[in-house]
Amino acid sequence: MEKLEEKENVKENFDFVDTIRCISMMGIVFEHTSSVETGIYKSTFDTLVETSLIQSFKFSTIAFFLIGGILINHKFQEYSAGQYLKNRFKKTINPWLFWLFVYIVLMCVDRYVAYLRGGDTIIVTNFFGYVWHLFGFGLFYTPSWFVLNFLICICILLAFKRYLYSWIFGTILGLISITYSLNLYHDWFIASHSTALFGFVFYLWLGVIINKNFELVMGYIRRISWPVIILLVVVTFGLAISESWILIKIKALDAYNTLRITNILYSLAMFALLLKIGKIKLLHKLEPRQTTFGIYLVHFVIIVRLMPLIFQPLKLNYAKYSVWLNSGIHLLTFIAVYGISFGLVQLIRKTRYRWTIGL
To answer: How close are the terminal C-alpha atoms of the chain, in Å?
Structure first.
C-alpha cells in the first residue's frame, strides 16, 4: 500500500514538473529570440517596457535547475554515482554533441558560401582555427552552454553526495551563487550567466531539498493565499526590473543576468506560484516530457542560422524602431522559432534518429 502511494506521489510530481518544464522552455526560447541590444532606448518609458518584457520570463533558467533537482533526487538514491552518470551522459551528451556539430557545419557552410561570393577567406585560410572558435563560441555563448553546465552541476552534487541534504553544504552553494550576483557590479570575472559554471549548483541542490520535503513545502505553499503569492511575484518582478535599470545605467555587460539577486527572488516566487497552480492540462498536450530537451537542442541552431536568412535581407534597424514594433518582432520571432523547433522535434520523434533529441 505504501509503495502504491509512493508511485502515485511520484506521478503527481511529474505532472506539475511537466507544466513548469513547458512554461520554462517557452520562456527560455522567448529570452533567446530577443534581437534588441540592451539600453538602446533614450526614453525611460521605452526602456521600462523593454526591461519588463525581458524580465517576465527570466525565472525560466532557475526554474529548470529546480525541477532538475526535484527529478534527480530519487535517481540519486536508486543508482550509484557511476551508474547515474553513465545513464545521464548517454542520453544527454550524444544529442548535445550532435546539434553542436550541426551548428558548426552550418556556420562553416555559410562562411564558405560567403567566400565564394567574395567575402572573407577565413574558412579556407584558417579552417581549423575557425572551427575551434565556433566550438568555443557554441559551447559558452549560445544556449548550448546549459547542457554542459547542468551536467557539471550534477557531477558536483554527486561528488558531495554524502552532504547532499546538509544545510551547511547548501549555504556554501548559495554563497557561491551570490558571488556571481555581486560580480555584476565589480567585474571580478566574466559576468555572463552562460559562463557561470558553479553559479547554478545551488538551485539544483534546492530542487533536491524540495523533493525530499515535498509535502512540507506544498503545505506551506497551500497556506499562502492567492493574493499574497501574486503580490510576492509582482513585488519581486518590480525589484528585478529596478536592478536591471541600475545595471543598464552603470553599463554592466549583462544587465539581464539570470543570477541578479532580485531575479533569484523573482524566480523563486514564480516557482512557488507555479507549484501552487499545479498541473495545467492544456500544456500537457504539448508533451513537454518528450519534447522539451529536443526543443532546447534545436532552437539555438534555428536562431543562429535560420533566422538570419530571414532577417538579414530585411535589414532591420532596431535602434530606429519603436519599442512596440521591436516587441512585436520579438514576439513573432519567438512564435516562429518555438513553432519550428516543436514541429521538427515531433518529426524526429517518429524516426530512428530519436536519439538526437534525447529519446
So the answer is: 32
C-alpha cell at 93: 551528451
> What is the rounded CA–CA span in Å between residue 262 and residue 244?
9
- Is the pLDDT score of 231 beyond 50? yes
Distance of CA 274 to the CA centre of its chain: 17
**Confidence check: pLDDT of 354 > 80:** yes
C-alpha cell at 88: 545521464
Contacts of 332 (CB under 8 A, 6+ apart): none
- pLDDT score of 81: 65
Q: Helices (DSSP H) in 141-225: which residue ranges?
A: 145-159, 167-186, 201-212, 214-223
Q: Which residue has the cell 554592466?
A: 252
Q: What's this model's pTM, rounded to 2 decimal places?
A: 0.87
Does an H or E element contain 236, and which?
A: helix 226-249
Q: What share of the chain is helix, strand, coil (3-state, %, to 5)?
A: 80, 0, 20
